[in-house]
Structures are given as C-alpha cells and as structure tokens.
Amino acid sequence: MRVPTVVAVVTFLAASVSAQTLTMGNDVSSPNSGDPTIGTIRTAVDLTSPANASGNLTHVSFGWSASGCAGAAKVKVFRRVGDTFSLVAERGPYTTSFDNEVDLSPAIPVLEGDLIGVARVADCGNPQLYSPTGIVLHKKYIEVTGDAASFTYADSHVYTGELAVQATGTATEYVAAVITSVASNPGRKGSYYRTLLQVLSYPYTSPVTGRFVFHQKLVPGSPADPSLQFTTTAGTVQSWSDVLDAMQATGQPGSLDIVLPWGATIPEVGAQVYNDQGAAGTTGFREEPVAAPNQAMITLGTNVLFAGATGFLFGPADATRYRSNIAVRSLDQGVEFTLQARHADGTTAASPVQFRYGPNIWDQRSWQEFTGAVLEDGDYLEIDVNEGTAIFDCSIVDNTTNDPADNLAQVAYAIE
User: Fold this and answer.
1) Please, which residues bridge with residue 142 across strands?
2) 3-class SS at 352?
3) How many Cα atoms within 13 Å fall on the side-chain side of residue 49?
4) Same domain, yes or no, for 192 and 112?
5) Is the bond preceding residue 359 a cis peptide, omega within 30 degrees?
6) Rounded Cα gap, residues 18 and 7, in angstroms
7) Does residue 18 lie in a domain region?
C-alpha cells in the first residue's frame, strides 16, 4: 500500500558504527524454494545485499536442499563493476547439510559493494531461497551456468527471490556519506563550476584518516576511481577551494564518497558548488552530504530512494529564464527507475521513461534529454524506483548569471 510522508532528519553529529559488523547477503530463516535448474553446474549470486563495508569475511551460512552432498557447494565472492562480475575469491567445495555454517580459512578480503554467492558444483541438492508468495519482494539474485569466475549482467539471468546465503566478518572502512553532485569543469554560457569542500573535526575527537573518492560521469565505480586522503585534527577546519582539482580529476562532473575507518566519528562535511567568474565573483549553492544507506536507516523523508519508493523534483518556475539538469547517483545495489515528467497542473508532459544503472554510477543530463519532454514553466518530475537505491537531484541555473540552485528528491511515499 502507499503510506504518507514522515519527515526524517539525518545529522552528521558524533556517530559511531563500531558496534556493527561486516555483513553481506541474506539471513533467510525459512526458505521456501530452490534455485531454477538452468544447468547441472551453476552459480547464483545475491544482488540486493552487497557488503556494507570493506574488510575480511570470516564466516558464511547458506541453505541447501539436501544433506550429505559430498563436495557439492562452493561459496563465492564477486566484485561488480558496471555490468561485469569478477570472482574475488571462493572457498570449498563443501559437503552440505540443510543449514550450513562455515568458518572461512583463510578469511576473504572484500570491498564495500562486493556480492556473495553460492555455486552448485556436483549433481546433488541445490541452493535455497525465499520466493515471494503473492506479495511484493524486491530481493533479486542472478544465476548463470557453470562454476563461474566471471560473467556479464543480463536481465534474462535475474530472478526474484532472497538467496539463502550470508557472510559476516570484520570491517575496516565504509562509505559514510555521498555528496551527490560535484564539478570542476566548464558549463554552458561561459560558466565554470568548481566545488569547495570543508571538513570540521569536532573538538575532543581522535584524529581520523579518511578518503574522498570521486565517481566521474558514467564511469562505473571501481577501486581505480580517483581519491584524496585527508586526516582530521580535533577542533579544526580543512578546506579545498576546488577539491576535484586537488584530486587531479577535473574535466567532468560526478559525485563524491566520504570514506572513513570503521567505527570512526563522522566529521561535519559541507560542500559549495559555485560558478567561478574570477574577478567578477562567484555564484553557487551549499550542498549537504547524504548519509549512505548502509549506515543510516532508509525510510520515508530521506534523500535515498529505494525499491518501491516515489520521490519528486521541482523544475524551474520560469523555463525561459532558467535551464535545468537532472542527476542520478546509483548506490551499491545499482538502480532501476521510471521518470515521469508532469506539467504544473499534474498532466503528463511525455511518456514515462525507464532507466537502469549498475552500482555507483553518476549521470547528469538536461531535463529534455532525461525525460523526453520540452521543459515548461512549473514542470516537475515523478521518480519511481523499481529496484535498488539511488540519490536524485535537479539543478536550476539562471541563463543570464549562471547562478545555480539545487534540490534533492525525498521519499514521498513507498510501497510497503
């Protein structure tokens, strides 16, 4: 059903995640089905519960339909970059029970966003899962034939269900927050946008060494993304007048992750995206970080849109005086969504358009490029997320001064 908006405020005051552990996959207490028989040897990988931090996996549990299957099951960890899945490590094969609990030796190093799976490598039993029974279930997994070491995403390989495999371990670092849109590049009509970044370490806190990680437009997130290390000192502010220039990552806009050691106190972080006109001054807007969904509750009113959620974005009230761009930043799960452009009176401005992005990809396009609709006064955008998680924003820029403003979509209601 649709439920009304409840405002939720995420604050970046002293917070700790030290009590949490590294997890990936699903704790399925009552599986009700098995995976499809697409081949005698096959590999199934969970898509919707990636590793919530970087660290070392030390234990895995998984369900199997038969006990005593000698050497029938392997546990596998995959890294997804865009639509390419590559094997990080595997353990086994194991002789199965119905409920398998395995200590991993040696431990498996993983990065936040990695995925856990299980492979059937002998003709006995099969992986277990929870399948929907007449209700909405946004859990998905992908299955391919063979004892896979790499494969490519395809819709035909994706199934609805909660794969019964979960791994836990010791976390080392995590993405604490995302600055949705950053820039250090020329724009339209003679503009040049930069991003000023400030970090305040609260008094009486211990020094923390973290990283900013930049995801450039339409480049899938990977360990090779540009980064900039910083170290906080209690009670002090650090500033970068053009943080992407400091990272040697100018030329294309994108988004910025704030990566911290596990359990570290989150500093105050603020960004200002501004049009730099040299001696003529600057215009711009402040941008607050969005708490990463692996660490903050995803709920109504937040800026992270999740599967089943609907959010809205204002376009400009005056479409002649202002231009508008829409940006989307997918998170660790990737995202599938539908955009519906509407006029101020609520009527549709164009047919709905569907999009899919892999994990940690940022894209920005003009209003018309994204929606297929010519922008008119007071138009707005309805966003329906079908799978995964993402952050959406809309920039509104004065055509005369190039002064930008920005608004983030919030979860207005969701399918429960």
Assistant:
1) 45, 158
2) coil
3) 20
4) no
5) no
6) 27
7) no
Specify whether the CB–CB gap between 95 and 59 falls below 8 A: no
Query: In this structure, how many other beta carbons lie within 10 angstroms of the beta carbon of residue 407?
Result: 15
Same domain, 159 and 178: no
**Predicted local confidence at residue 136, as pLDDT:** 65
- Judged by DSSP in three states, 227 sits in strand
In this structure, the answer to whether residues 64 and 145 fall within a common structural domain is: yes
Q: Say what the pLDDT of residue 12 is.
A: 33
Q: Give the pLDDT score at 10.
A: 32
Same structural domain, 125 and 221: no
pLDDT of residue 3: 32
Q: So what's the pLDDT on residue 292?
A: 83
Rounded Cα gap, residues 370 and 45, in angstroms? 31
The continuous run of DSSP H or E covering 311 comes out as strand 309-314
> Are both 129 and 195 inside the same structural domain?
no
What is the tally of structural domains in the chain?
A: 2
User: What confidence score (pLDDT) does residue 133 get?
Assistant: 75
Tell me, yes or no, whether 213 and 359 share the same domain.
Answer: yes
Asked whether residue 5 is assigned to any structural domain, the reply reads no
**Regions of the chain with pLDDT less than 50:** 1-19, 295-296
Please report where in the chains the tokens 């761009």 appear, as a residue: 325
Q: What is the pTM of this model?
A: 0.91
The Cα 227–Cα 257 span in angstroms is: 9
Residues 367 and 286 in one domain: yes
Domain membership flag for residue 13: no
